[in-house]
Amino acid sequence: MPQFKIHHVTRYTYEVPVRNSANQIILFPVKDDYQTVLKQDLTITGEPAVDIYKDYYGNEVGSFMFAEPHSELKIDSKIEVVTKSRPLPEDAVSKEEQWNSLQAIKYQVPLIDFLKQESCEVVHEIKRDTQVGQYLQVTPLTAALKLNEYVYQEFQYIKGVTSVETTTDEIWKLKAGVCQDFAHILLVMLRMTGIPARYVSGYVCPNHNGMRGEGATHAWVEAYIPNYGWLGLDPTNNCFVNDLHVRLAVGRNFRDCSPVKGTYKGPSNHSLEVGVSVSYEDGHTQDDQATILKPHPITNGGNKSDENSYRKYMEMIQQQQQQQ
């Protein structure tokens, strides 16, 4: 079971002192059978009281107010977390039965939220270019894997061309972006086929080079697969999500999972610096830092890898289907 120490720093710097800074943070890792938080130290400028509660999607959310005039706001989170590998889904049930199962649950709460398509002017272009209908001829699992691979292959990983406010329409036309953009496009495609899909924020922590987003804040997607549940898919790296990904929050999109957001009284000019480092059990540390102006994209690091962590798995699934 991998163990990671993750240090995540967010620093706002203001040209002149501001006041009444009200903030929301989602920096508390998910706690479940596959992820155990050993320790978390959270330090905030001014040491304000942090009110922690669970939101509609089950995420731990913190809110705080810093009323005194200040020229800097620093939010420093240090966590120690252990992750556990989870079994991958089997695909033995017929595709007809699985699609019927998805039809039967599409109005259930909270799945209905993860099927609702957001405003998107290029939805018809996406249907045409991806030939969505072809994915209904295979099982939901195979469809999800193929769509994940489609995003990975057709979109370029380029930092700085998008922000958190870039729309799905703009991402589709650019055919480029970073992890949150890849995730948003995959969400549209999965929901288009009738597969519930939710956005996930967190970190990817492989102890080697070659994965985009390594040692940084990251985003991916979870698809709801019949007879299995939520399956994590990382379109930025074309891989399954397992014990090398640390989950912070889930939601309909980035807005539901933003690690830090807030408001304050004062001039609008300010700068934002985000830094993440990951330490491993062997002492190796991976750092990722970016200094940018608001609004800021999720930071990413690493290089594109041609390796496909589930290509062999897909081939195995396809062979099983041919034998049925």
How do the helices and strands line up, and which of them pair or pack?
Blueprint: E1 3-25, E2 35-44, E3 51-54, E4 60-66, E5 70-83, H1 95-105, H2 123-130, H3 140-154, E6 156-157, H4 168-174, E7 176-177, H5 179-193, E8 197-204, E9 216-225, E10 229-234, E11 239-240, E12 245-251, H6 254-257, E13 260-265, E14 270-280, E15 285-292, H7 311-323
Parallel strand pairs: 6-7
Antiparallel strand pairs: 1-4, 1-5, 1-13, 1-14, 2-5, 3-4, 8-9, 8-12, 9-10, 10-11, 14-15
Helix pairs in contact: 3-5
Spatial extent as radius of gyration: 20 Å
| Extended strand count | 15
Q: Please write the string of helix (H) and strand (E) elements.
A: EEEEEHHHEHEHEEEEEHEEEH
Strand percentage lies at 35-45%
Which bin fits the share of residues in helices? 10-25%
* Shape label: globular
- N- to C-terminal distance: 35 Å
The number of helices is 7
Q: What's the number of structural domains?
A: 2
**Which CATH class of the largest domain applies here?**
Alpha Beta
The CATH architecture of the largest domain can be given as Roll
CATH topology (level 3) name of the largest domain? C8orf32 fold
> How would you state the average pLDDT, rounded?
86
Q: Outline the biggest β-sheet.
A: 8 strands, antiparallel
- Which structural class is indicated by helix and strand composition? alpha+beta
Low-confidence regions: 289-324
InterPro entries: Bac_transglu_N, Papain-like_cys_pep_sf, Transglutaminase-like
Organism: Niastella vici
Protein name: Transglutaminase
Domain Transglutaminase-like: 171-237
